[in-house]
Automatic annotation (TrEMBL):
InterPro entries: G_CP_dom, Gnl3_N_dom, GTP-bd, GTP-bd_ortho_bundle_sf, P-loop_NTPase, TRAFAC_YlqF/YawG_RiboMat. Residues 53-83, 98-109 have a biased composition (Basic and acidic residues). GO terms for molecular function: GTP binding. It is found in: Nucleus, Nucleolus. Residues 128-309 form the CP-type G domain. This is Guanine nucleotide-binding protein-like 3. One of its GO terms (cellular component) is nucleolus. It comes from Regulus satrapa (Golden-crowned kinglet). The lineage of its organism: Eukaryota, Metazoa, Chordata, Craniata, Vertebrata. Keywords: Coiled coil, GTP-binding, Nucleotide-binding, Nucleus. The keyword Coiled coil applies.
Length: 558
C-alpha cells in the first residue's frame, strides 16, 4: 500500500502560539530600531519666496524633469526593441543548432544537400517547378474542382497551357465534393462544364485505411469509416481513362492538378482503393510530384497546388491561397473572412452558425467567439483565432455552400470550337453522361435550405511559370530587405543620439540651462543676512548610483 502524506493541519493551540511568537518578534525589532535611532532625511526647503524669477525657475525645473523622463522612456523602449531582436536571433540560432545535431549522424555533404532540398520544397518556386514537371509528363491532365465553387477553382493559365501545348494533351474536369452541394446544383454545373471540357462527377474518400500498416484497435476507441471511406465516381473515371488508353495503344500518364484543398490526393487514393498519397486539412501537404501505378496501362501523377496570383481578389486569395491560415498574418485572415461573409446570404449564415443578426463581419466573429467560448483575458472575444477557424471550415468540408453557374455560356478566348472538339476526341461522352447521372443519384445530397448561397468571384488566376515567381519573390524580398535595413539604420542613429544626449544630461545637468544663468546653491544659506555673496555649488560625488540616475530634483539650480 502507498504511504499517505503527512497532514499539514495544526491544532488551534499551536497555531495561536506561533502567531503570538511572531507578534513578539516584530515588537522586539521595532523596539531595537527605536533605540538605534532612525535618521530621517532632511527636507529640502526649496526656492525661497524672496528669490528673483521664482516662478520661471520652478517652470524650467519642471520642464527639465519632463524632458529627462521622456528621454528615459524612449531609451527604455529602444532597449526593449534591442532585446526582442537579440531574442529572435538567439531563437533562430538555437533552431539551427538543433537541426544540425539531428542531422549530425550523416556526412556533411549529404546533410547540406538535404537541408537545401527541405528549404526549397516549401518555396513557391519549387511548387511551380514540380507542377511544370507533372504537366510535361502527363498525357491527360485532370483539373480538380470543388463542387461548391467550380468557377473559382478553374485556372485559365493552366487550361491555356494544356490546350495550347504540343503533344495532343487532353484536359478533363473532375467535379469533386459533390456530396456537399444540392442535387439540382450539381446537375446544373455538369451541364455547364461539359460544353467546354469532359467533366466527371466525383466524391472522394476523405479517410482511407492504410493497408500497409497494422491497425491497432482498442475497445473504447471506435472510428466510423462508413461515410468518410466511401467514394463515388471512381469506376466512371477509370473506365474513361482506360478507354482513352486503348485508343492511344500505349500506357498513359495522368496528372492531377488544382488549387489547395480541392481533393487531388484524395482522388488518387479513391482510384487506388487505399492510402497511397498523404492527405490532410492543412494546405500544401503535397510538396513534390508523386507517382502512383493504378494498373499496367495507367499511371497517376500527384502534384503540388497551383499558386494563386497576388492580383486576385481577397475572396479568391482567402479560399485558394497556398498559405495555411494558422501560419498567415491575422490581418489577411480577417480580410479573407470579411470577403467570404460579404459574398454569402446573411440569413443563411445566421441559420448555419445559429447566431443573432450582425451588422458587419467583425461583429459576426465576435458573436461566434462568444458562443463557442473563445475568449481572451478579461472576457474579450478572440476575433483573430476565430477568423482562422472560420476560414479552415470554409476551405475544408465542414461548411456546405453552393454557387450558381453563369446565366450565359461564354467560353474563354483560348477555348475555340476546334479546341473543344480536340479535348472531347477519344472519350466516350455518352457513357460518361450516364455514369455521372448514376453517381449523382447514388449520393445523399444536402437540401437547398441547409446549403449557404455563395456568390463566386469567377476564375482564379494562377502562377505556373517558375520565372515569374522568382521575379516577384526577388523584387519583394529586395524591397523588404531595403526597408528593414533603412529602419534598422534609423533606429541605431536615433538610439546613439539619445544615448549621447541622456549621458550628457546625466553627467552635466547644467548643460540644459539657458545661457546667462550662474550656478548658485539654493539651500538655507541662499541670500542669508550677513552674507552678501552667494556660495558656489558643490556636487556630492559620493552619492550611490542606484539612488538617482540623473541628479536630485528636490534641489534645483539656477
Amino acid at each position: 500500500a502507498e504511504l499517505r502524506k503527512a497532514s499539514k493541519r495544526l491544532s488551534c493551540h499551536k497555531r495561536y502560539k506561533i502567531q503570538k511568537k511572531i507578534r513578539e518578534h516584530h515588537r522586539k525589532v521595532r523596539k531595537e530600531a527605536k533605540k538605534r535611532g532612525h535618521k530621517k532625511p532632511k527636507k529640502d526647503p526649496g526656492i525661497p519666496s524672496a528669490a528673483p524669477f521664482k516662478e520661471e525657475l520652478l517652470r524650467e525645473a519642471e520642464q527639465r524633469k519632463q524632458k529627462l523622463e521622456e528621454l528615459k522612456q524612449k531609451q527604455k523602449l529602444n532597449r526593449q526593441k534591442e532585446h526582442e531582436k537579440r531574442r529572435k536571433l538567439e531563437a533562430k540560432k538555437n533552431a539551427a543548432t538543433i537541426k544540425e545535431k539531428a542531422e549530425g549522424k550523416e556526412s556533411s555533404s549529404k546533410s547540406k544537400g538535404k537541408t537545401k532540398k527541405l528549404l526549397n520544397k516549401n518555396s513557391k518556386k519549387s511548387f511551380c517547378r514540380e507542377l511544370s514537371k507533372v504537366l510535361e509528363a502527363s498525357d491527360v491532365v485532370l483539373e480538380v474542382l470543388d463542387a461548391r465553387d467550380p468557377m473559382g477553382c478553374r485556372c485559365p493559365q493552366l487550361e491555356q497551357a494544356v490546350t495550347c501545348s504540343a503533344g495532343n494533351k487532353k484536359l478533363l474536369l473532375v467535379l469533386n465534393k459533390i456530396d456537399l452541394v444540392p442535387k439540382d446544383n450539381v446537375e446544373k454545373w455538369l451541364n455547364y462544364l461539359k460544353k467546354e471540357f469532359p467533366t466527371v462527377a466525383f466524391k472522394s474518400a476523405t479517410m482511407m485505411k492504410d493497408k500497409t500498416m497494422e491497425q491497432v484497435t482498442k475497445r473504447h476507441a471506435r472510428v466510423d469509416f462508413s461515410e468518410t471511406s466511401q467514394y463515388f465516381g471512381s469506376k466512371c473515371l477509370l473506365k474513361l481513362l482506360q478507354g482513352y488508353g486503348k485508343t492511344q495503344d500505349k500506357a498513359i500518364q495522368v496528372g492531377v492538378v488544382g488549387f489547395p484543398n480541392v481533393g487531388k490526393s484524395s482522388i488518387i487514393n479513391s482510384l487506388k482503393g487505399k492510402r497511397a498519397c498523404n492527405v490532410g486539412l492543412a494546405r500544401g501537404v503535397t510538396k513534390s510530384m508523386q507517382t502512383v501505378h493504378l494498373d499496367k496501362q495507367t499511371k497517376m501523377l500527384d502534384s503540388p497546388s497551383i499558386i494563386a496570383d497576388p492580383s486576385n481578389s481577397a475572396l479568391a486569395l482567402a479560399l485558394r491561397s497556398i498559405i495555411d491560415p494558422e501560419g498567415s498574418d491575422s490581418a489577411d485572415v480577417l480580410e479573407g473572412v470579411n470577403a467570404i461573409i460579404n459574398h454569402c446570404s446573411k440569413q443563411q449564415v445566421m441559420m448555419h452558425y445559429n447566431i443573432p443578426d450582425f451588422r458587419d463581419p467583425e461583429e459576426f466573429l465576435s458573436l461566434l467567439a462568444q458562443k463557442r467560448g473563445m475568449l481572451k483575458k478579461g472576457g474579450v472575444p478572440d476575433i483573430e483565432n476565430m477568423a482562422k477557424l472560420v476560414l479552415c471550415d470554409w476551405t475544408g468540408a465542414r461548411v456546405k455552400y453552393c454557387s450558381q453557374p453563369p446565366a450565359s455560356q461564354k467560353p474563354p478566348p483560348y477555348l475555340t470550337e476546334q479546341k473543344i472538339a480536340e479535348m472531347q476526341e477519344g472519350f466516350n461522352l455518352n457513357n460518361l453522361e450516364q455514369e455521372n447521372l448514376n453517381t449523382v443519384q447514388a449520393l445523399k445530397h444536402p437540401s437547398p435550405a441547409s446549403s449557404i448561397a455563395f456568390q463566386s468571384a469567377g476564375m482564379t488566376n494562377g502562377t505556373i511559370e517558375e520565372n515569374k515567381v522568382i521575379e516577384e519573390g526577388s523584387e519583394w524580398g529586395s524591397m523588404e530587405r531595403s526597408k528593414e535595413e533603412e529602419e534598422e539604420e534609423e533606429e541605431e542613429e536615433e538610439f546613439t543620439e539619445k544615448d549621447r544626449c541622456v549621458s550628457r544630461t546625466l553627467a552635466e545637468p547644467w548643460a540644459l540651462l539657458p545661457p546667462g544663468f550662474a550656478l548658485l546653491s539654493l539651500t538655507d544659506d541662499f541670500l542669508s543676512p550677513g552674507n552678501g555673496r552667494s556660495r558656489s555649488l558643490s556636487f556630492s560625488l559620493d552619492k550611490p548610483a542606484d539612488e538617482d540616475d540623473a541628479y536630485d530634483f528636490n534641489t534645483d539650480y539656477v
